[in-house]
Specification:
about 290 residues, mainly alpha, 13 helices
């Protein structure tokens, strides 16, 4: 059950990171705030990898192409999803946006269904109920159309793709120590993300890198929380399926609402709170149906 503890720690750290990044978006823009997560997280990820290698008593595994490709794909998908997440938060608010992003487990399950995997009755019921919760939450946007909703769903899809790809890359490392495998996968994916985003910003937004470096005091905290959250997500992916991990991670929906109210005085509308509860119920049924033992 180590993956359960890792997932809960990841969800808590991720919520704190999202709050920190949401504040940086105002000063750095969407891509600049996105870069913070990766640029300032990489040194911590390398430190985690060194710790894992020291505990295991051997060097990290050398990734083959079968591991590098999914890890790189997951990194690219995560960059796009993070940018969409921050844009959604800027338009919709932190707590409600988190609920939209947490439709990710449902999207992962539907992807598995299209790939030929079967769903039992509980899993199917979980998908239906969670979707109903999404619709209930989204009705708040009826007067403005679905424009504010679509980026949130797109971000959820991007995070779903990244989760599936990361797990595939970690397993392809064929490392028996799950902690060492997870930290190796994290270091590889973060390195790819830092290189790609740095090149993009240097070419298309040359002032963004300078601004990002100038915000180092606020960015270090976001980088550490991001690296710690990612390390726990990767460890959970090394031990359990992406759908099970991301479903349990939905506990951050409630945590996001609590923190948004406590720190920013941001109160989600009653309909949104009901929608969040229905989403959590749906994905909870999905998790039970997958036979995770929770």
């Amino acid at each position: 059950m180590l993956w359960v503890a890792a997932t809960l720690l990841a969800a808590a750290a991720q919520t704190g990171r999202n709050l920190a990044q949401a504040g940086l978006t105002v000063r750095l823009g969407t891509l600049g705030a996105t870069q913070v997560r990766f640029l300032y997280g990489l040194p911590f990820a390398l430190a985690f990898l060194a710790l894992a290698a020291w505990i295991a008593g051997r060097a990290p595994p050398v990734p083959s192409w079968s591991a590098l490709l999914p890890l790189a794909l997951g990194g690219v998908a995560q960059i796009g999803a993070t940018a969409l997440m921050l844009a959604t938060m800027a338009r919709r608010g932190f707590a409600v946006s988190t609920a939209w992003l947490k439709t990710e487990p449902v999207l992962i399950a539907l992807t598995a269904l299209m790939l030929g995997e079967r769903l039992n009755l509980q899993e199917g019921a979980g998908i239906v109920i969670a979707t109903a919760g999404v619709i209930l939450t989204g009705r708040m946007d009826a007067a403005r159309g679905f424009g504010p909703v679509l980026p949130g769903l797109a971000a959820a899809a991007g995070f779903g793709i990244s989760a599936i790809a990361f797990r595939a890359g970690i397993l392809a490392l064929e490392e028996p120590d799950p902690f060492l495998a997870a930290m190796t996968g994290l270091a590889v994916s973060l390195s790819v993300q830092v290189v790609l985003l740095t090149l993009w910003l240097r070419i298309f937004r040359p002032g963004s890198m300078t601004a990002t470096l100038g915000e180092w005091r606020s960015s270090v905290a976001a980088g550490f929380l991001g690296a710690f959250a990612s390390s726990m997500w990767f460890l959970a992916f090394a031990l359990a399926t992406a759908a099970a991990v991301r479903t349990l991670g939905l506990v951050d929906v409630l945590l996001a609402a609590v923190l948004a109210r406590a720190l920013h005085g941001e109160r989600a509308p009653r309909r949104a709170l009901i929608g969040m509860a229905v989403i959590v119920l749906g994905v909870g049924l999905l998790l039970v149906g997958q036979g995770s033992g929770l």
